[in-house]
Write a structure and sequence with these properties.
heterodimer, A: alpha/beta, 8-stranded mixed sheet, 3-stranded antiparallel sheet, globular, B: 4-stranded antiparallel sheet, 30 helices, 58% helix, 11% strand
Chain lengths: 392, 815
């Protein structure tokens, strides 16, 4: 080619260049993805250096998989198989060299003195002061988690109570004349070993033991745990499997089974539902939940309706309108349930316990605070009708 | 050796410049509309301003580079002639941006699996990255096409032309189009206009119309027709149906501050108002907003009871009404968006009917400057999440200082911060740091402060010590002494509801029971005695967070808030997990400095490599690298200055995003002027013509000086009144930054040509845009929140100073 010649861009040249560009872009793609691959890999290396502090307790309800160092966790319906170093969905149970350990044992991050209504339990020793105990971790991923700051974390990531010791805590509870202990806020069943042992200690000195759970647990571990408890609240989050799958990353069936189990074991049960706009606030959903409770758990089972406020990942939803909460309560009452409460909207007419026979106020409340009681050993002070529940 | 030959172009340079001018104007309009659209789906988090700008610039630089690669040689084939492609590409601009806007809307809906779910920051960035692609890429490509259409020597002219076009576009969108109405329709209308003008310009001797006269007439008409279809309304209805089922979309309005959507819950009548995708208020159908009433009661029990109050935000709720019921005699409500008052009036809260209420439609930060000292007893700020400097301005020490001035000697300031529904019993470190930085700022101004997990997080500050309280017993005692209506408890009796008034003895119980009992005094399990365990623990954790106070120039709350949002929005829900977080979380901030460190090292390596070469035996690779590094740095400088100045301006003078087009226009005008003057000097001043590297070094030095002096300059000039001084200061600083940025380009090109790198024009442009992309995205999202504005500018200055070394390879003087 000489100087005088002009190199002209032909159609073929142009297409060839386009092809070259395409090939270069395709080559760049693996490089790009390598950055994303590198991130978790390096993250894993960092994980191996995690410091656990005190020695870890071996968990209950698991099985080693023959010929490997993998273990299967049998605590919740996920029945996860964990490789060495992996932590379960709950962020509490971990495979440490072929042994399943619990990271939450004796590592609570909340120890609070609350009224039992905050558990929430409304027909179980109303006004009783309980010690609320909670540790990090949960086997659900509710998009509206009310305790996301510690429920969606591992016990290794939270500020735990450093001085905690089960025996001393129970002694102190007795000294402070606390009526009971409540395992609440997060998912206590994920740390079944700690809850069982602590509940046993409390039982020895006559403290009442209550539990608030989502009920996503296998039958055997739950049965074991129930033996040590006096009352249970189960959150009935939504009407169907789809709701549970999409909103909580769990399944409905085990929750229903857990509610039936509590009933069959003769423990006091209350059911709580958070009414979330657009997700479970339609009449059909609320009616189906109320009907299920009425049919399977009985009309005397309290149903606690809770108001949603924009929280955690659902900050794009408005709060539940008061009218919707009142509609939900009416649906419950119309379904035949005798005790339907409005739990976290105060003061509200749905905070009180009414005698189903004479419709007078048996327990007058403002939010969680009991103002007046008109019940004597479970009997209405006005008409003498027996009010369902466990009373002092 | 291939030598170029001038090939006669089918369009004259003047016409190409005209088309590029129109393209520049339309690009600016499209960019602002896309920016607003992304802001609407990312809840207006301003940190994304830099990301959006950065992504747009990245694609534009890629477009320019691809254009440079594809059209390195001249062509005589009409179908790939750059000028023809430029004219044709200008025709599709309108529909392309319209489709992009619709794409952004639907991608956001698809990503949110559940109604109301917060989008992870990563998803927003990915959405932004891909959704800015088509038009930004086209803009970059169009510039390259224009270069190749006119010959490379006209680069400077084209650069200026496009910049002036962008100036015009910025002014049109900011002053006229932004509040006119629906974006899709506007962009189609502008697209039709662009299409028609391009057709007219290209028609006489261009093949565009000659081949298909019918097409050039019908296509603009078709776009114009489409612009009258209510596409926005339809897409809005579909969007909200998916986002919030059970609600009816009542109205959508474009305002200078974002997109307002009003939705009504079909069953309960509750009205929810969204601004740019985030909830800003709700109005219940009945006057049963307990929480507001309880808050008003607490505020009315501060001593002495407030009579004159200022409410910042909160018009879309019943707090004003309850404050008036509890003794406030004069209440001013300041809202940035006047439309909120209209919406409130339409839904039963008409502020114009009450003589005690004054509505102020202005940025409260601006309005507060003109209020006389010691005027108010109470100032209440209902703050959205301070994840951007717009909302953060009401949580900084400077604002607290201004509030302190307008409060009388017993005055009380109250701030409500969102807490994402977190439980009061445990405060995560993220949330503690966010609120802690604000509490520290408050502590530095007010002698007495309190914090409580009420309404999210409530912070109260008193001008006099021991006047403010959240103790239920003291609140009850103070409330007892007032004549106002006592709270009531509703009790059912059959189908009727009776009201039982809380008597004076039960008032401590009332204050202990409200807000989930967080104010209650109870037994401390770990300590001794009775205290407000939950509230005091909460306050202790917040105070112990050990963070820097939140300032205007160092908005640490923004950084912690973004950190918090990331921790919430992270979508890790499946399968067994590892114990610690990912590498990104472990390395945190330092990773963001790595690219800059890399470029600094590259600059110094090239400089040291070239310094050893003799003056006449330069290394072509080092020269190219030097050129690209300079272009890259000027890009970083331009955007770092622009973003920093916009943030500073907003801090000083109020809401800025309605003026964003004007600010960009000033920058572009500076760019064009800089290019013009430096081009003139280069042609007419022998010393510059002979040694442009030295002049370039001078420009870089001027950039460094400007970076180091911007904060002081703005602070000084802002002293001349609230608005004018700040406007003048920021306007002149943006113009200066644009001028210096623009001045480098002709010099770099001249240098490149002199060194024999004639074909690097579009690649230099791409390097400049890449730098701008990096500067925009890092400055807004990381550096300003983490380092503060002065340090960000100091870091930029350091970067520019090091780049002077990149001029070493360019010192050769071979022709």
């Amino acid at each position: 080619m000489t100087n005088s010649q002009t190199k002209v861009l032909t159609r073929r040249d142009f297409i060839r260049r386009l092809k070259k560009l395409g090939i270069s872009a395709a080559k760049a793609f693996p490089l790009f993805s390598a950055v994303f691959l590198l991130d978790p890999l390096l993250g894993r290396r960092l994980a191996s250096g995690a410091h656990f502090g005190r020695s870890l307790k071996t968990a209950d309800f698991w099985k080693k998989i023959e010929g490997t160092k993998n273990v299967r966790c049998n605590l919740c319906p996920r029945r996860e198989v964990l490789k060495p170093g992996q932590t379960g969905f709950c962020r509490i149970r971990m495979n440490k060299n072929g042994r399943l350990v619990t990271l939450g044992y004796e590592r609570p991050c909340v120890l609070n003195v609350d009224p039992v209504e905050k558990n929430p339990l409304f027909n179980f020793h109303p006004g009783m002061i309980v010690l609320s105990v909670a540790h990090a971790g949960c086997n659900l991923r509710c998009l509206y988690c009310q305790n996301w700051q510690f429920a969606q974390k591992s016990p290794l990531q939270t500020r735990n109570i450093r001085t905690f010791d089960s025996k001393n805590t129970v002694k102190r509870a007795a000294a402070k004349r606390i009526g009971g202990v409540s395992f609440t806020y997060t998912e206590p069943v994920c740390c079944v070993e700690f809850v069982s042992e602590f509940a046993d200690l409390c039982g020895e000195i006559g403290l009442k033991r209550t539990l608030c759970t989502a009920g996503s647990i296998e039958k055997q571990p739950f049965k074991n745990l129930l033996r040590r408890l006096d009352a249970v609240t189960i959150t009935f989050k939504g009407p169907d499997e789809e709701f549970y799958r999409k909103i909580t990353a769990a399944s409905l069936k085990p929750v229903l089974d857990s509610m039936l189990l509590v009933k069959s074991e003769g423990k006091w049960l209350e059911v709580a539902t958070l009414v979330v706009p657009t997700l479970n606030d339609d009449r059909k959903s609320l009616e189906s939940m109320a009907a299920w409770i009425r049919k399977n758990l009985g009309e005397k089972t309290p149903w606690l309706i809770e108001k949603f406020d924009p929280q955690y990942k659902l900050i794009g939803l408005p709060p539940t309108p008061q009218r919707t909460i009142e509609k939900a309560r009416k649906i419950g009452l119309d379904a035949g349930l005798k005790y339907v409460y409005v739990s976290n909207l105060a003061p509200h007419t749905g905070n009180h316990t009414y005698c189903p026979a004479c419709n007078t106020v048996a327990v007058k409340r403002m939010g969680f605070k009991v103002l007046e009681k008109n019940v004597n050993s479970g009997v209405c002070g006005t008409c003498g009708n027996k009010i369902a529940g466990v009373w002092a | 050796v291939t030598k170029e030959r001038e090939i006669p172009h089918s369009l004259s340079q003047r016409r190409i410049c005209l088309i590029l001018f129109l393209v520049g104007a339309f690009s600016q309009i499209g960019q602002v509309l896309i920016f607003r659209e992304i802001m609407a789906v990312s809840h207006s988090a301003e940190a994304f301003f830099g990301v959006i700008l950065g992504c747009g610039l990245w694609w534009a630089s890629l477009g320019a580079a691809v254009g440079g690669f594809l059209f390195r040689q001249n062509t005589q084939q009409s179908w790939i002639k750059p000028e023809n492609l430029l004219a044709k590409s200008a025709l599709v601009g309108g529909p392309l941006v319209a489709l992009q806007i619709l794409l952004i809307r639907y991608v956001a809906v698809w990503q949110g699996e559940v109604p109301g779910q917060i989008l992870p920051i990563f998803s927003i960035i990915v959405t932004t990255f891909f959704c800015t692609l088509p038009h930004a890429f086209l803009s970059g490509l169009q510039f390259s096409l224009a270069i190749f259409s006119t010959g490379r020597k006209s680069f400077g002219v084209l650069y200026q032309t496009e910049a002036w076009g962008a100036v015009l576009g910025g002014l049109i969108i900011s002053l006229i189009l932004v509040s006119l109405g629906p974006p899709v329709q506007i962009v189609l209308f502008c697209g039709a206009f662009l299409c028609a003008l391009t057709a007219v310009i290209a028609r006489p001797d261009g093949p565009l119309a000659a081949r298909s006269l019918l097409f050039t007439i019908t296509f603009p008409l078709l776009i114009l027709g489409a612009s009258f279809a209510p596409v926005d309304r339809w897409s809005g209805e579909i969007l909200w149906k998916k986002k919030l089922s059970g609600h009816r979309l009542e109205q959508v309005k474009e305002s200078p501050h974002g997109r307002i959507a009003v939705l009504r819950h079909a069953a309960s009548g509750q009205v929810t108002v969204f601004l740019s995708g985030g909830i800003v208020g709700r109005i219940e159908s009945k006057e049963t907003d307990y929480a507001w009433r309880q808050l008003a009661t607490i505020l009315s029990c501060q001593k002495p009871p407030p009579e004159r109050a200022l409410l910042v935000g909160g018009s879309l709720g019943r707090l004003p009404q309850y404050l008036l019921n509890l003794g406030v005699e004069s209440l001013s409500i300041a809202e940035l968006e006047g439309e909120f008052f209209k919406i409130a009036a339409e839904n039963g809260i008409d502020y114009t009917r009450d003589e005690r209420i004054q509505t102020v439609v202005e940025d409260a930060r601006k309005a507060i400057v003109n209020i006389p000292p010691d005027f108010y007893d109470l100032v209440v700020v209902i703050s959205p999440e301070p994840d951007n400097s717009l909302s953060n301005r009401f949580c900084t020490r400077e604002f607290f200082k201004a509030a302190y001035r307008i409060l009388n000697q017993d005055g009380v300031l109250c701030i409500l911060l969102p807490a994402f529904g977190s439980s009061p019993e445990y405060v995560s470190s993220h949330l503690a740091r966010r609120t802690g930085s604000i509490l520290w700022a408050l502590d530095s101004i007010f002698p007495d402060t309190l914090a409580a997990p009420i309404f999210g997080h409530l912070l109260i500050a008193g001008k006099r010590k021991d006047q403010i309280t959240l103790d239920p017993d003291i609140l009850a005692t103070r409330f007892r002494s007032t004549p106002y209506q006592r709270p009531v408890i509703e009790i059912e009796k059959g189908s009727s509801v009776f009201l039982s008034v809380v008597n004076d003895e039960s008032l401590p119980d009332y204050f202990s029971a409200i807000f989930g009992g967080v104010l209650a005094k109870g037994m401390s399990f770990l300590g001794e005695g009775k205290s407000q365990v939950v509230r005091e623990n909460f306050e202790k954790v917040i105070r112990d967070s050990n963070v820097a106070a939140n300032l205007d120039d160092r908005p640490s709350a923004v950084f912690y808030s973004l950190e918090l949002l990331k921790s919430i929005a992270d979508r890790k829900i499946s399968g067994p997990t590892e114990n610690t977080s990912s590498l990104m979380e472990s390395i945190e901030l330092y990773i963001f400095f790595l690219p800059f460190l890399f470029f600094l090292c590259a600059t110094l390596t090239i400089a040291s490599f070239s310094a050893r070469k003799s003056r006449n035996r330069g290394s072509p690779i080092a020269e190219r690298c030097g050129l690209f590094l300079c272009a890259f740095t000027t890009g970083i400088f331009g955007m770092a200055c622009e973003v920093s100045l916009i943030t500073l301006y907003q801090n000083k003078s109020g809401y800025v995003y309605s003026e964003i087009g004007i600010l960009t226009a000033i920058f572009m005008a500076g760019l064009a002027l800089g290019a013009l003057i430096s081009g003139y000097l280069k042609e007419n001043k022998r010393c510059i013509r002979m040694n442009p590297s030295l002049f370039l070094a001078g420009v870089l030095a001027a950039m460094t000086v400007l970076c180091l002096n911007i904060p002081a300059m703005i602070h000084k000039l802002s002293g001349f009144g609230a608005g004018a001084g700040a406007r003048l200061a920021v306007g002149s600083a943006i113009l200066a930054a644009g001028f210096l940025d623009g001045a480098t380009f002709p010099l770099l090109l001249a240098r490149a040509r002199r060194l024999g790198h004639e074909k690097t024009g579009s690649f230099l442009y791409a390097a400049d845009l890449s730098g701008a992309c990096m500067g925009a995205s890092f400055t807004g999202m990381i550096f300003i929140p983490a380092l503060g504005i002065p340090r960000t500018l100091q870091f930029t200055a350091l970067f520019i100073a090091v780049t002077v070394f990149a001029l070493i390879p360019l010192r050769q003087n071979r022709e």
